[in-house]
Amino acid sequence: MSPEIFRAFARYNRWMNEKIYLTAAELTDDERKKDRGAFFKSIHATLNHILVVDRVWMGRLGGVHLEEGEMGPGGIRSLDQELLSNFEELRTERAKTDAAIDAWARSLNEEQSASLFSFVRNGAKSEIPVWWAATQLFNHQTHHRGQVTTLLVQAGKDPGVTDLMAMLRSETS
Asked: What percent of the chain is modeled with pLDDT above 70?
């Protein structure tokens, strides 16, 4: 699979995260943390979950050594672990992770994309092509950002256009 698609997805990821966080910042902390019946309950918790999983996958792709019981770097032990309760700190860490994802995608070539890599999941070694992991990384983000977009609209806030094509078109105009 061509790494150019992953570069586009990384740009889209950053673009959408900036829009989502900008829109979520219009809400109070209580509104962001309100249980809205979503899988991860709140806007804040869903944004947190996306960051957790991104860091897990980036750690795997980067070959980061994990301590016993960790599933991701920085002491990540569960997919619903709250990394940061402060929204602005979460937003800052989101931007740092987006920059790391973007740098990784820009460094990827076709040979690397097709290569196999190994990681440990639930105590068992897995081996998959890098492109599978990259596809999962970006698909997961899109899935949960769709949930956040719905929660924001239900809270009376519209993040605007969310289509990949809109971002790609804006880059060429």
From this structure: 100
Please tell me what DSSP assigns to residue 9.
H
Q: CA 104, CA 138: separation in Å to the nearest integer?
A: 13
Q: Determine contact, residues 102/10, Cβ cutoff 8 Å.
A: yes
Q: What tens digit of pLDDT does each residue of 39-59 get?
A: 999 999 999 999 999 999 999
**Residues 113/84, Cβ–Cβ less than 8 Å:** no
The structure's pTM equals 0.94
Which residues on adjacent β-strands are paired with residue 116? Answer: 129
DSSP alpha helix (H) spans, 25-156: 29-33, 43-61, 87-107, 110-114, 130-154
Alpha-carbon distance 112 to 156, whole Å?
43
Tokens of residue 4, six digits:
């150019």
Instruction: Report whether 20 contacts 47 (CB < 8 A).
Output: yes
Domain range 3-172, CATH architecture: Up-down Bundle (1.20)
Closest CA to 39 of 138, 157, 148: 148
Q: Where are the domains of the chain?
A: 3-172
Q: pLDDT tens digits, residue range 113-172?
A: 999 999 887 778 889 999 999 999 999 999 999 999 999 999 999 999 999 999 999 999
